[in-house]
Amino acid sequence: MPDETPRRLPHILPRATLARLLAPTYAASVGVAEEVAQERLERSLAHAEALEAIHRGVAAALGEARGPRTKEDAQLDRLSAALVARAGRVRAAAPTPGVSAVMVWLNLAIGLAPESMRETLAAPRGAALLEAGLREVGARLVRDLLGA
Length: 148
Prior knowledge:
The chain is mainly alpha-helical. It has eight helices and no strands.
């Protein structure tokens, strides 16, 4: 994934907005109501590392969806406008191993996953799975918001 998140992305997708957009995926993955999912996500995303990682996943998806003539700022403008028009249309990401790793990682941030999972996700295979999941979650958001 790119090391650099566009400067505007955290302003377009602040913690509360991301929690609302990711709630369907979390609810489907963990088996809780969307309201509970959103509350847990807000708590998880209060951790800077978690918020930055989700932003990196979205930035990677935006980069992959950007056409050769599309400028980053124009794409971010479209994303911002789409949040108003399409935020309620974001669906849950497919329940892949990578997406499950992201959900476990977010649960670790708020103490809802066993600490042994931290070591699993830190191992090379777990870290790769987590990065793939971040890209998948980002891709779902970009696809549903921008139709990309």
